[in-house]
Design brief:
It is built from 1 helix and 4 strands; from the N terminus they run E-E-E-E-H. The protein is an alpha+beta fold and about 80 residues long.
Length: about 80
């Protein structure tokens, strides 16, 4: 559970791989570090839909897997 106020709007950063395309177009992945060291990831097009939380170790593993295409080819 994220503590109230741990993520301020200015903390979120949009991925450089997120596409454009205006409202509803493209991808929009946003990330932020919480005050207590969790990596939060959300859909920037639906910021109130929820947040995925990862520890530093999990975040490092996720990033390494993405870099090495461990999760398959996107369509």
């Amino acid at each position: 559970m994220i503590e109230q106020g741990a993520l301020r709007p200015g903390n979120w950063r949009k991925s450089s791989y997120s596409g454009g395309g205006g409202v509803g177009g493209g991808n929009c992945v946003e990330v932020a570090w919480t005050r207590d060291g969790w990596l939060a990831i959300r859909d920037g097009k639906a910021p109130k839909a929820g947040v995925l939380l990862f520890t530093r170790v999990q975040a490092d593993s996720l990033m390494q897997g993405l870099k090495n295409n461990k999760f398959g080819q996107s369509s």
